[in-house]
Amino acid sequence: MFIVFEGIDGSGKTTQADMLYEYLSEKYRCIKTKEPTNSKIGRLVKDILNKSQNVDPATIQLLFTADRAQHVEKEIIPAVNEGKIVIEDRYIMSTLAYGIAAGVSEKGLKMMNSQMPAPNIIFLINIKPETAMSRLNTARIHLDAFEKIEFLKKVTREYMRLAKKAKNCFIIDGSKSKEEINKEIIRIVEAHMK
Ligand code: ADP
Q1: How many domains does the chain have?
Q2: H or E stretch including 24?
Q3: Cα 111 to middle of ligand 1, angstroms
């Protein structure tokens, strides 16, 4: 079983992945993982993002995808094959939503990711960029907050468009309380286990 959380920073992905992991690991063998990873390629991606270097948007998505390809082969597929539940924070839909919002071709992005396994369940935590940003500490907020909010609005629109077309994707209202969201997620996961 492969479960993915998607959404912009501050939407609550980490919180919900942790709560779901805690719940499921009492009954099942689970792993919790995230992208970008801690591999060399993942660290390169994080380094570029942290320094906000002026990188071509297609190039950064190629790097995210390279990190993902290695992660899928080395961690996700082996864990699923061992019967574990894999809970992952960010996957292909992140590349699509952020890449398309930055002007990269949807077809090209989809092609790059076409060989990777589809998740059994995707949770898109939908939230207003203003709310998400206000939850993050100042260290995570860029100085160009206005530009950032405009871009995140585009990302959110892409996420919603993609989620409505995707199989097994559930759009979760991220403005509810952590506990309410957790309950909703557990209900959906348990229905899938039957
Ligand atoms: P992400 O992993 O998507 O960036 P986090 O789970 O790290 O988001 O959450 C960002 C911040 O918002 C954290 O301080 C977290 O405690 C808080 N938070 C998460 N979910 C909610 C919620 N439903 N309501 C209010 N605050 C939340």
Answers
A1: 1
A2: helix 13-24
A3: 32
